Automatic annotation (TrEMBL):
<protein>
    <submittedName>
        <fullName>Short chain fatty acid transporter</fullName>
    </submittedName>
</protein>
<feature type="transmembrane region" description="Helical">
    <location>
        <begin position="44"/>
        <end position="63"/>
    </location>
</feature>
<feature type="transmembrane region" description="Helical">
    <location>
        <begin position="101"/>
        <end position="129"/>
    </location>
</feature>
<feature type="transmembrane region" description="Helical">
    <location>
        <begin position="191"/>
        <end position="214"/>
    </location>
</feature>
<feature type="transmembrane region" description="Helical">
    <location>
        <begin position="249"/>
        <end position="268"/>
    </location>
</feature>
<feature type="transmembrane region" description="Helical">
    <location>
        <begin position="427"/>
        <end position="448"/>
    </location>
</feature>
<keyword id="KW-1133">Transmembrane helix</keyword>
<keyword id="KW-0812">Transmembrane</keyword>
<feature type="transmembrane region" description="Helical">
    <location>
        <begin position="70"/>
        <end position="89"/>
    </location>
</feature>
<feature type="transmembrane region" description="Helical">
    <location>
        <begin position="345"/>
        <end position="366"/>
    </location>
</feature>
<dbReference type="Pfam" id="PF02667">
    <property type="entry name" value="SCFA_trans"/>
</dbReference>
<keyword id="KW-0472">Membrane</keyword>
<feature type="transmembrane region" description="Helical">
    <location>
        <begin position="150"/>
        <end position="171"/>
    </location>
</feature>
<feature type="transmembrane region" description="Helical">
    <location>
        <begin position="280"/>
        <end position="298"/>
    </location>
</feature>
<feature type="transmembrane region" description="Helical">
    <location>
        <begin position="21"/>
        <end position="38"/>
    </location>
</feature>
<dbReference type="InterPro" id="IPR006160">
    <property type="entry name" value="SCFA_transpt_AtoE"/>
</dbReference>
<dbReference type="GO" id="GO:0005886">
    <property type="term" value="C:plasma membrane"/>
</dbReference>
Length: 449
């Protein structure tokens, strides 16, 4: 047995399910908060009960976000069932007749899409990987499907340097919560700065190349995932109100109006800064209209939704657990305490490096770019001011660290797992290797620039 095979077997044996990982992280966070954070004055109960209270508060704070993520999976999946999207992806899948070529192509295009929006790249990568697997299964080709899934997930290690990066976009606004401390920092100093552009180009070249080499190593097997085909139960003779459900005109009108509203925002966007409106709500709104329009009837659209909705179970049940972890990290001060420890051993030269590593570790417990910026932002920017370090560079260091450990944390992989029918233990051995590659790229960028 080769070393590569031993590595894959070892990682898959020690990795529990994403739900178990969330439970373990909850327990670890609880213990860390109990040991290292200070008990509030005049607390009428034991501190362990106070921490449990923080967990309960946080448990319900991501309900809106949970719904957004469930919708992006369901609508993205439904969109993938349309003939139009199938035809487009098929144009790319014809080049994906081996694991190496497929992994390279999926990773390359997913990283490019990540520059536009992280939610879009996540759904795109998942759909692309699934379509390649469906084509391989139809032709009887053997492929390394877990590697393709990891390639579809690779954009989540690159997105925070693009136009949906939470921290860079936050400080570019005129009313962000640190405006009095650091002022307004435009994306010209962060996202569009030469160091970040060079970093992205390196990611775009090196990461797909590594996937290509991994694909060359073998481990191709029969595609065992079960993919349901599009099944629309539309009556041949619709009567009465049923005609509305099967009406192409109704679907074109509703879908067309929604798509027009969404696209109009891009047309009137004055600059690249204006792309900050492309958030989860925008993507879900656009996907909704596009799916209705492309399916051609409400009946076909709803049939696709019924097929896609099963994959959202992991999101609905696991996101509240991570929200609880975030509640403990935020309200107990554990997240701030952790970041402060790194800042105390930093100087002007090492601050971006320590910020990078602290953000990478905190992201495992608080896998949310916006939430992490709220926790760590005030600390790292104050440290940059006190040490005379570059604030824009420190912000990008935090962004790089936040996205790096997405390759280790299955939180964001849940939509992809739902669409591809893969398991976390299938893709994480490969995404972990890509994380090491990304770490090297980010560190070199922070040291040289």
């Amino acid at each position: 047995m080769s070393r590569n095979s031993l590595y894959l077997r070892f990682v898959r044996q020690i990795l529990p399910s994403p739900f178990s990982i969330a439970v373990i992280l909850t327990l670890v966070t609880f213990i860390l908060a109990l040991v290292f954070t200070e008990r509030p004055e005049n607390s009428g109960s034991t501190y362990s009960m106070v921490i449990l209270g923080y967990w309960e508060i946080g448990f319900w704070e991501l309900l809106e976000f949970t719904m957004q993520m469930a919708l992006i999976l369901i609508l993205g999946h439904a969109l993938a069932l349309t003939s139009f999207v199938n035809n487009i992806i098929d144009r790319f899948t014809i080049y994906c007749n081996t694991s190496a070529k497929a992994a390279f192509t999926i990773s390359l295009l997913t990283i490019l899409v990540s520059m536009i929006n992280w939610g879009l790249c996540l759904v795109f990568g998942a759909i692309f990987a699934r379509k390649v697997a469906e084509r391989a299964k139809a032709h009887g080709w053997k492929m390394n499907y877990p590697l393709l899934g990891a390639a579809g997930y690779s954009g989540m290690m690159c997105f925070h340097g693009g136009f949906s990066g939470s921290a860079p976009l936050a400080v570019a606004s005129k009313d962000h919560f640190l405006i009095q401390e650091i002022g307004q920092i435009g994306i010209g100093q962060t996202l569009l700065a030469t160091p970040n552009i060079i970093t992205f180009v390196l990611l775009l070249i090196i990461v797909p190349s590594v996937f290509y080499l991994l694909g060359k190593r073998g481990h191709d097997t029969e595609i065992n995932a079960v993919f349901k085909k599009e099944t629309h139960h539309v009556g041949e003779k619709s009567q009465g109100a049923e005609r509305i459900d099967n009406s192409k005109i109704a679907a074109i009108v509703l879908g067309g109006i929604i798509c027009f509203i969404a696209l109009r925002k891009i047309w009137v966007s004055p600059s690249l800064v204006g792309l900050s409106f492309i958030d989860l709500n925008y993507i879900n709104f656009f996907f909704f209209g596009l799916a209705v329009l492309l399916h051609g009837s409400f009946a076909k659209f709803l049939s696709a939704i019924e097929e896609a909705i099963g994959g959202s179970a992991g999101i609905i049940i696991q996101f509240p657990l991570y929200a609880g972890i975030m509640g403990i990290m935020t309200y107990s001060g554990l997240g701030a305490l952790f970041s402060q420890g790194f800042m105390e051993i930093s100087n002007a030269t090492t601050l971006p490096i320590f910020t990078f590593f602290s953000a990478a570790i905190v992201n495992i417990f608080v896998p949310s770019g916006g939430g992490q910026w709220v926790v760590q932002g005030p600390i790292v920017t104050e440290a940059a001011q006190n040490l005379g370090a570059s604030i824009p560079k420190t912000i990008m260091a935090l962004s790089y660290g936040d996205q790096l450990t997405n390759m280790l944390q299955p939180f964001w992989a849940l939509p992809l797992l739902g669409i591809t029918k893969l398991k976390a233990k299938d893709i994480l051995p490969y995404s972990f290797l890509i994380m090491l590659v990304g770490m090297a790229i980010f560190l070199i960028s922070l040291l040289l620039f």
